[in-house]
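Project standup — Tuesday

K.O.: blocked on the structure for the chain from last sprint. Re-posting the sequence here as requested.
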Amino acid sequence: MRIALVGTGQMGQAVEALAETQGHEVTARFDADRPLTSADPDDVGASIAIDFSLPDVALDHIRWYCRNGVPAVVGTTGWYDGLPRVRKWVDEHNASLLYAPNFSIGVAVLRRAVAAVGPLLDRLPDYDAFVHEIHHTKKVDSPSGTAQMLGELLVEHLDRKTHIDPEAQHDRIDPEALHVSSTRTGSVYGEHTVGFDSPYDRISLEHRAKSRHGFAFGALKAAEWVVGRTGLFTLEDVLDDWVGDAG
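H.V.: unblocked you, prediction finished:
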């Protein structure tokens, strides 16, 4: 693949380093000093863009991809309120876009595990659910997009939970709230825990990233998958294609 790298921070660097070992070529790089939206699409020379930029420019980038016919894999989070607009752009331009709050294949498996156990825990009201995530101090959003996704999944499957509350609790929490909490410390790549606590025991499902290479690997695999396809996709669609209904 010929890749346009949008966002040259730590994740962008990890994608580029891994791409070179897999026979791919980075043909263009865009960041704050060289904005994507000012680029001539004919000069990009890429078969796909991989975007790990910033939330405040994500929608502008996505609109640019759709208008200019550049397939894109977007790992930037913090823009999901704009999904209705993105769906419209993808449909209008017959575009190709794949996004995910987390490109770790392990997190995709964790999501499936939570979806599978959710209906069972829905019938066991003594277990109260929560999500906690830990990331490095340079992360720009809180809670993480992954934690938000896991919380929304629990609300979908647990009738006793009606909404997510990501804020610190200074009084008794609403029993219908699903608490999604965050810690920012050091250089943690990313840890996510989905817990179910009862008076008698606790069930935990966890994912811990060992490095950024796992996210880079997932983004490259997603890029290989989406090239030649048209529509709006997530990493779940990639996993569906790989393993079908397994598990």
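K.O.: great, moving the ticket to review. The longest strand covers residues 128-135. The mean pLDDT is 94.
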